[in-house]
């Protein structure tokens, strides 16, 4: 594992970033009426070019990002307080998704092909490879329960798609068929509920291990990604821009009311979302060909 590669520092960005991510917000939260869009206060942290996905942030102020091209892909751990890349690990060029267990120890990556499609486990502290579990179909998204034991993945091919749950020790494996327009997956900390995002903005849930489906909410736009808040009460859904690079929004979906209760405007180059451990800050992964960034946005109250 390579360590201590410094990223360029943005002028004017202070250690207040760390306060946003780990404890409380330095900025005054912006109130938002239900279903009202509020321009948030925000700062940005530089990230490597061709950002693909982000894991949830760790309690030490770092976050793992997956970036690269089909020629080479890398996991890089960024300290958002100091804006320094503190470690990296080269992964499969077919890696498409990364997720972090809630306790911050286990990191997982899903691959689409290569020697074989797989869920791969890494140590989230050191970045070292731990083990891999072979999959029968390409994996496009992964999510992890609190213990890092049950890995939920969205896998499949056109016309054949499913949600699968695999134990870190390969002790169990379940498969639930979903529509071939599913684009992302999330799982509750307990692992009892799996959320599936569909391209038309519909969010469905699966009760694990029974697999009973239910509709949670409908986002009024096409969707491409989502993330679940640490307390399990809110989903943040990244809407697909009307055209490449056009501005779009993140819909805030309350799981208490199963409805959209607000939104946050984002750039059309946003490809991934995460939420700070205190649930007050949205992290937006903004991709670029020469450089990327992680934008930290105060979540409006709803």
How would you portray this structure in words?
The protein has one helix spanning 16-22, and strands at residues 5-6, 36-37, 42-47, 51-54, 62-69, 72-79, 84-91, 95-100, 106-111, 118-123, 129-134, 139-144, 150-157, 160-167, 173-178, 182-187, 193-198, 202-207, 212-218, 223-228, 234-239, 245-254, 259-268, 270-275, 281-286, 292-298. The protein is mostly beta strands. The chain has a 5-stranded antiparallel β-sheet, with no helix packed on it. A 5-stranded mixed β-sheet has the order 2-23-22-21-20, with no helix packed on it. It has a 4-stranded antiparallel β-sheet with strand order 3-26-25-24, covered by helices on one side. The longest helix has 7 residues, at 16-22. The N and C termini lie far apart (42 Å). Residues 2-39 have low confidence and may be disordered.
């Amino acid at each position: 594992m390579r360590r201590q590669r410094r990223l360029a520092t943005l002028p004017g960005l202070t250690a207040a970033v760390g306060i946003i991510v780990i404890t409380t917000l330095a900025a005054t939260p912006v109130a938002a009426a239900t279903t009202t869009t509020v321009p948030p206060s925000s700062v940005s942290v530089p990230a490597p070019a061709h950002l693909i996905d982000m894991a949830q942030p760790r309690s030490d102020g770092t976050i793992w990002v997956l970036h690269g091209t089909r020629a080479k892909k890398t996991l890089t751990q960024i300290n958002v307080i100091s804006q320094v890349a503190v470690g990296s690990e080269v992964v499969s060029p077919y890696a498409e998704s990364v997720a972090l267990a809630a306790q911050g120890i286990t990191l997982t990556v899903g691959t689409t092909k290569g020697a074989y499609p797989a869920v791969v486990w890494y140590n989230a502290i050191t970045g070292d490879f731990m083990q891999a579990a072979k999959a029968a179909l390409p994996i496009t998204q992964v999510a992890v329960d609190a213990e890092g034991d049950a890995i939920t993945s969205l896998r499949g091919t056109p016309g054949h798609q499913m949600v699968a749950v695999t134990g870190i020790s390969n002790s169990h494996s379940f498969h639930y068929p979903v529509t071939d327009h599913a684009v992302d997956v999330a799982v509750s900390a307990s692992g009892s509920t799996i959320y599936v995002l569909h391209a038309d903005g519909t969010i469905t849930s699966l009760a694990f291990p029974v697999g009973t489906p239910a509709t949670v909410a409908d986002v009024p736009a096409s969707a491409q990604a989502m993330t679940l808040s640490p307390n399990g009460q809110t989903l943040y859904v990244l809407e697909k821009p009307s055209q490449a690079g056009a501005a779009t929004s993140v819909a805030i979906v309350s799981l208490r009311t199963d409805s959209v209760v607000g939104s946050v405007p984002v750039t059309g180059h946003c490809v991934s979302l995460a939420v700070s451990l205190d649930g007050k800050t949205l992290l937006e992964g903004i991709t670029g060909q020469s450089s990327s960034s992680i934008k930290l946005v105060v979540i409006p109250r709803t």
